[in-house]
Prior knowledge:
- The complex is a heterodimer of chains A (173) and B (274).
- Chain A is of the alpha/beta class and 173 residues long.
- Chain A has one domain: Fe-S hydro-lyase, tartrate dehydratase beta-type, catalytic domain (fumarase).
- Chain A contains five helices and seven strands.
- Helix content of chain B is 39%, strand content 24%.
- Chain B contains eight helices and ten strands.
- In chain B, the strands form three sheets. A four-stranded mixed beta sheet of chain B has the order 4-2-5-10. In chain B, strands 6-9-7-8 form a four-stranded mixed beta sheet.
- The mean pLDDT of chain B is 97.
- Chains A and B meet through α5 of A and α3 of B.
Amino acid sequence: MKHYDLPLSPESAAELRCGDIVEISGFVLTARDAAHKKICEALKNGEPLPFDLSGAAIYYCGPTPACNGEIIGSCGPTTSSRMDDYAPALMEAGVKVMLGKGKRSPEVNDAVKKHGAIYFAAIGGAGALYKHKIKSCELVAYPELGCEAVRKLYIENVELLVATDSYGNTCLK
Amino acid sequence: MRTLKADDIIIPLADGIKRALTHVDCKALELLKQAEQNETSALCKWALGQIVQNDELAARENAYACQDCGQAMLFVSVGQQLRIKGELTAALNKAVQEGYSTARKSVADPLTRLNTQTNTPAVIHYDIIEGDSLSVRYMAKGAGSENMSKTYMLTPSKGTDGIVNCVVDCVKSAGSSPCPPIILGVGIGGTMDLCALLSKKALVFTDKPKRADETELEKRILKAVNETGIGAQGFGGSITALSAHVMTAPTHIGMLPVGVTIQCHSDRKFEIVF
């Protein structure tokens, strides 16, 4: 299985094809419904964000709380299509990789193609498995959102499916 | 008349919830293992393998199988000979709050979206039954699957073909969103609200004896849903649903209400009897 590091270079993105299963390591930012709303409002109002979106990878995830000195609790993906309304704006702002589960809208797949981005599908319901793949977790923004806060995670050797490649081809319809 | 103090249910129910959230139902896990064996699509086989690994790991480590610990659904059967001292609903909610103390809190006001921080209130359905026991059946209901559940108000002429078509329609429009492979609860009859409730009860009261035509319908539904080819995680495969469960109730002569509850593979539930 091929291994890729985040941030994904344009050459690496160009190699990936939908249906490939690859291993990924690197930093991701968690964000789901509430955080996306805040991010898009800030982008619309020209306000600075507390994190850098250029070249970023966004993981649609709201983890269970970390207990007993754990790095993170259970942290599987949430349904990506709920973020479809926001995803094109985030790609305009520089996001190059999205990790989630389930199909995306045609508009999102078009935006993935436009920006040379990649959408990876993780396995829904595999929260305990992914917990062991997270080597660091840092809360970076919106602590008031609890599980929906933006957290910077280092993921290591996670097997992911290329669901939409940078050519806009998708295997999730 | 037997007396039960409402507060006495809190700790045992909370402990049961904690265990259910970390231990996927053994029947579902068995079906997932069989699905992994039998699935021919490579991508779906990979997905099912990851799910089985995850569920076994979660049980070994008492870790939450899925980060969406769901809203708590409680089906409470109260014996009519039982005398309850104290406030039952408050005690049930305290049990849920305690049971979810280290889990993700996923309950919010529907308008303000402010998180209640306690994963309460639970969704509670009460039945009065014979005898003097109190039984509580718990099910974790996550949003990924619940967002895809539907009710259909059919006319009687649509018949069982119509019922099967509704379920297939519901599953097709859900696609990959509810984390297939799914488990289906189908409620038929009653009124709009009752068929929806029956579709939930079908998933929790799996031990209720069934009529031959109900069992036959379950088989038809499961076959039709698996023929959609959606497969695990929507990757395209032969196993989209692990099982289908039907529950019926008499309805108006001019109606055929059908409730379809989609449950995901992270089937977390248990029963406790006081």
